[in-house]
Request: fold
Amino acid sequence: MSHKRVYTFGNGQAEGRADMKNLLGGKGANLAEMNLIGIPVPPGFTITTEVCSEYYTLGKEKVIELLKTEVEKAIARIEGLMSAKFGDVANPLLVSVRSGARASMPGMMDTILNLGLNDDVVEGLAKKTGNQRFAWDSYRRFIQMYGDVVMGVKHTGKDEIDPFEAIIEEIKAAKGVALDNELDVDDLKKMVARFKEAVKRQTGSDFPNSSYEQLWGAICAVFDSWMNERAILYRKMEGIPAEWGTAVTVQAMVFGNMGDTSATGVCFSRDAGNGEDLFNGEYLINAQGEDVVAGIRTPQQITKIGSQRWAQLAGIPEDVRRQNYPSMEEAMPEIYKELDAIQTKLEDHYRDMQDMEFTVQEGKLWFLQTRNGKRTGAAMVKIAMDLLRQGVIDEKTVLSRIDPNKLDELLHPVFDKKALAKTKVLAKGLPASPGAATGQIVFLAEDAAGWYNDGKKVVLVRIETSPEDLAGMAVAEGILTARGGMTSHAAVVARGMGKCCVSGAGELKIDYKKKTLQVGSTTLHEGDFISLNGTTGEVYEGKVATSAAELSGDFSDLMKLADKYTKLQVRTNADTPHDAEVARAFGAVGIGLCRTEHMFFEGDKIKAMREMILSETQEGRKKALAKILPYQLADFKGIFRAMHDLPVTVRLLDPPLHEFVPHDLKGQEEMANAMGVSVEYIHERVEALSEQNPMLGHRGCRLGNTYPEITEMQTRAILGAALELKKEGIHVFPEIMVPLIGILYEFLEQEKVIRETAEQLFKEMNDRIDYSVGTMIEVPRAALTADRIASSAEFFSFGTNDLTQMTFGYSRDDIASFLPIYLEKKILKVDPFQVLDQKGVGQLIQMATEKGRAIRPNLKCGICGEHGGEPSSVKFCHRVGLNYVSCSPFRVPIARIAAAQAAIEE
Ligand code: ADP
Ligand code: MG
Ligand code: MG
Reply:
C-alpha cells in the first residue's frame, strides 16, 4: 500500500487545503490554500506530520529511505516551475526548509533559508543575479542558520553572543564600521571562510557541500526541533499534545535581500493589540524574512497612518519621518496596493484576522505565510464583535471564537490615571502588548524564574528576547526590550501570553554583566521597580498604582450575546460585600457559596470566636456566641444588600476549630485574661483541639452536630439579617447550606435545628421569610446516597474541592510533592483540583444529580468548587444538567462564555 507522505503546491495548484492542518501543519495547509485562491506563493511541498511520528519511531535513516522518491520528485517539480536546478552551479535553485505544526508555535521550531548553496553554487548565483553582494550575504546567512540549527554550533555562555555574531562583530570592528550593510563582498567572503572554520572547530565536521545532504540534514533538524526544550515548554503552556508532530515545508526561495526594490515584512489585517480594524505591519528593505522578527534592525511601518502614529509616539517630526522612515505605502506604492488587496482577500477568505509574511523580490510580491493571528484578549473581543457587525460571521461563531481564559486579561486593572500623572516617564518604546505591569527589574530569564519562585513580581528587561527566554517571560509581569519592533519575538510572544510588553525602547542602555539599565542620567539596577504601559509604550520609574478595568462596550455586548444562548447560570463565591459587588458587575446571578468562617477573623470577632471554641461548656459557648451574633448579622446584611433580589447560599461553619485558636503564648495569655482563666487551661484546650488529620476530622456539619448552638446562632444571623432588610424593602433569598454531610441523619439533625430556630425567630420578629435548606455534596458517601439525602435537602451544591480530595484520596495541601511527577509520567493529564475529573468525580456529580432529582424533580444543583470557573469543567456541568456553577468573581465572565459555548456545542 502506498502511503502519501508529500503534498505539493505551486502555480495555482495544490494537493493540500486549508482544512488539512492536522496532516500538513498550519503553515503547509495555508500555503496550499493560498495557491488555490490565486495568491502568489513560491512553489514547494509539505512533508506530513505523520512522518514526524515515523521519524521518532523508525529513526532518521529509515525515514529518509521512505521519503526519498517522493521528495526527489517534488524537488523536480519545483525545478520545473522555477526553471532552475537544485545543486546546479550555472542556474541554482535554493529552498527554505520550514517547520509548521497544527497549532502555530511562532519561533519555537527551526527554519533554514537559502539551502542549496556551496562554494561553487554561490559563484553561480552571483553570476546569474549579477549581484555578488547578495549571493555572498545569502551564503553567510545559510551557513549561520544551518550551522546553528542542523550542526549544533552553540553559544558558549549565557551572556556571550553566539560564535557567528562574534565573528561578524570582529570583522566590523576591524573595518571600523557599525552596520552589516557597510560590509563589502570581500568582507562577506572572509566571513564565510571564518564561519566554516568555526563550524569545523566546534563540531569537528566539515560544512556539507552536497545540496541533498544539506536538504536531508535540514528536514531531520526540523523534526528534531519538535522536541527541543523551548518547543516542549511552549506546548506545555498552550496544552498542545506532543503526539501532533510538526510538518516540514520545503519551498523555493524568494529573496528580499536583492537590493532596494526588494523587501520583506510581516503584516496583520487588523490590530492584534487592540483589535482596531486597521491593516498594519512592518517591513525592511533589502532584507531576509528573519530580520524583521529577530529585532536586529528596527523595521519601518507598512502603512502611512501606522508610520505617522509611530513617529508621533517617538516624537519624530513629520518631515523627518517622511524622509528617513517612509512607510511602504509611500516608498513602494504599487507593491503596497497589491499587498493591501491580498490581505483583504485573505481576511475575507478566512473570515478572521490574518497574520501574514511576505517578501518582495525585485518588485514582485510573494506571500510566504498566513494564519489566524494571535491577539490579546481585548483584540479577541473587539475583532469578533466587529466581524459580527460587519456581517462576516454569525453570533454562534463569535461565541465559539472566544477563548474564555483570555477574557481574564480584560478584567484586570490598568494604571490608575492619577497615579500615572504623578509618575516620571523614563523612556518610550513601542506599545507591543497592552496592559499595565509593575515589578522589579531582572535581566536574565533564569533570574526571572528564580525571583518569581521567591514570590516577587518581576519585569524582564532585555536588549531583545529569543525563544530561550520563554520561561522567564511566562513568569514576568511584563517585558521590556531595547530592540525590535511590533512583530519582534518579544512582542508576538507577549501578546500570545496576554502579557504587557514594551519593545524597541531604543534609549535604554542595558548591561547584562553589570545588571544595569541606563536611560540618560538615570541608572537602574536589578531589583529596582519599574512600570510598563503596554498600551502606550511608556516606561516609568518605580511602582505605579492600578485601577479597575473598563467593562462596557464590546465586552458587555459580548456578555449579552452569551446570555442569549446560555442555559447554565453563573453565580459567584463571595464572602464580602465588595466581592459580591464585583461579581454582580461581572454578571453573577447569585452567590453560590458564601463562607462564614472568613468573617470571624477581623478585629474583635476573632476574640469572641476563640472564647466560644475554648469554652468547655455549652453555657460558656452560648455566652460567646451571643457576642458573635451581632457581628454575623451585620456581615450578612452587607452581603445580602449587595446581592439584593438574587439568591445567596450561605454555608454554615466548616473548618476545623483549631484553625481559629491562638497557638502562640502571647495569644494564649490574651485569651486567658479575657476569659478569666489560667494560661495552662487555654494551652490544654488548644492541645485538645489539635487533630492528626484535621481535613478529615472535627469539621463541617460535625461541628454543628456536636455544638448545635453554633448552627442556631448562624441561623439567627442569616434569617435575622434577611428579615431586617425586608423591612427596608430589600428582597433576599437565603439558602442555608449544611457542609460535609455523608449520612442523611447528619443533615436531618442540622435541618431540625435550623427550622426550629427559624420558627422561633419568626415568632419573635412577628414576620417570616422564605428560605431553603440544602447541603453541600463533598463526601463520596453523600453522592452515593443522594436519593436519600434529597428526600430532605432542597438543594445540592457540589463542593468539588473536597469531593476531588476525597474521591482521589489526595490531600490538596500536599499534592505538590507528587503532582509534577504524575503529570510528567502522564499518570494524570492535568491537576484534578484545577480541571474537574469528569470520569471519576464527574460521575459522582452526574449520579448524585440524577438520584436526587428522581426523588425531588425540582432539586436545584450547582457546583461551587474551584472548577466552577474552569471552561472545560463548566461545559461538563452544562452537559450533566446542573442549574448553575459558582466561581470567584473574576472568573464569572469566563464561566458565562464557557456556558454559552456549551449550549452552542450541544
Ligand atoms: P516561523 O514559523 O518561525 O515564522 P518560517 O518558516 O515562517 O518560520 O520562516 C521564517 C522566516 O523566513 C519568515 O519570515 C519567512 O518569511 C522567511 N522565509 C521562509 N521561507 C522562505 C522562502 N521560501 N523565501 C523567502 N523567505 C522565506
Ligand atoms: Mg513564519
Ligand atoms: Mg468542603
In short: The radius of gyration is 33 Å. Residues 42, 96, 98, 106-107, 111, 113, 251-254, 289-290, 293, 357, 359, 368-369 surround adenosine-5'-diphosphate (ligand 1) (CB under 6 Å). Residues 618-642 form the longest helix (25 residues).
